[in-house]
Amino acid sequence: MKVSEFDYTLPKELIAKFPAEPRDSSRLMVLNRRTGEIEHRIFRDIKGYLKEGDVLVLNNTKVIPARLYGELPTGGKVEILLIRQVEPSVWEVMSKPARKLRPGRKVIFSPELTAEVVGYLGEGRRLLRFSYPESMDFMEILSRIGHVPLPPYVEREERPEDREKYQTVFAKEEGSVAAPTAGLHFTPELLKELEERGVIIKTVTLHVGPGTFKPVKVERVEEHKMDYETYTVPEETAEEINRAKEEGRRVIAVGTTVVRTLESVASEGGTVKSGEGITNLFIYPGYRFKVIDALITNFHLPRSTLLMLVCAFAGKEKVLNAYREAIKEGYRFYSFGDAMFIY
Q: Which of 55, 196, 258, 326 satisfies CB 3.0 to 4.6 Å to 331 for a cystine?
């Protein structure tokens, strides 16, 4: 299967630079994956498509201010993006310009935070060991000097309000460098109303890494390798999903990260297992879904692994036709853009 089969042309003005306000006022395209029928709604109308007994699964990961700007003792400037913690005080990072961060080099981020390059991982990736006063907490320092890792295609400077806007209202577990953007459309009021209507809301955690922005550089889909990301599936979430599957109730994923998490921990028969782990599951057309019955997602980049996952779920031609319709109707695309409900 060729990567070029998942290409489409998007007018640049349809790339959303800011989120809708309020969150649930974004547009919602509803796609019936069996018939291909399309409806145009507002996101808060999602409550009309969810029913009592549905299990709605959210990713409660929290975006950390993972972008740091530092200086070398020689005066050179560097930018790093935290990817994941591998040991206490040791993080895998992406660095720019990478050539400046050779093993042994020291980087100064602030008077209280410095780091030493302790490992070389190739492709601009390094291992950094951070040093800071024992009386201080790393995440607290990060909250003061770190920057929101806005996606590169937003093409604008960070604003103070991005700390709240580029975060779901249910974010809890710190560790992501990108938001699970399908969740950005929910408000506390909408979630409460869904629960009052009998929708069962559960969470998983998948810490989103920079692989979510990683371009697919191979020609054939099957040759692409996904980055590993860490996940947690609580026991109560697994139990509720398994009960729903036994009783014929729907499991609805909010975002591709939830899909990848649940499909990673499911048996061939569709039983979900709780626990923690890592996954690099790559879902593309031909994949047989074991857990998910419906999906809430955003509009994704051309040739991206996220678009391939959506095509696997709903069918490539139906999805690409829906994208053409979205472009014609002026929908807003990508992280801060509008949403789809696929059932």
A: 326
On whether both 90 and 197 belong to a single domain, the answer is no
Strand, coil or helix: what is 169? coil
Task: Tell me the pairing of strands 339-342 and 294-298.
Answer: antiparallel
Domain boundary residue, one of 147, 182, 217: 147
Spell out the residues 6+ positions from residue 182 whose beta carbon is closer than 8 angstroms to its own: 254, 255, 256, 296, 297, 298, 339
**Helix runs in the chain, H state only:** 138-145, 162-165, 188-196, 235-247, 256-264, 305-314, 316-328
Domain holding 283, by residue range, is 3-63+163-342
Q: Which residues of 102-118 are buried (b: 16+ CB within 10 A; e: fewer)?
A: eeebebebeeebbbebe
Q: What is the pLDDT of residues 193-208, one digit of tens each?
A: 999 999 999 999 999 9
What is the tens place of the pLDDT at every residue in 136-147?
A: 999 999 999 999
pLDDT of residue 124: 87
Tokens of 221: 């889909």
Environment class of 334 (CB within 10 Å of its CB; exposed 0-12, middle 13-18, buried 19+): buried
For residue 221, what are the contacts with CB-CB under 8 A and spacing of at least 6?
Answer: 1, 2, 3, 6, 284, 308
pLDDT at 262 over 90: yes
CATH of the domain at 169: 3.40.1780.10
Q: Is the pLDDT of residue 212 over 80?
A: no
Q: Which residues contact 118 (CB under 8 A, 6 or more apart)?
A: 90, 103, 127, 128, 129
Cα 93 to Cα 90, 96, 101, distances in angstroms:
9, 10, 11
CA dist., res. 79 & res. 89, Å (int): 18
Round to whole Å and give the CA distance between 159 and 147: 10
- Look at the pTM and tell me if it is higher than 0.70: yes
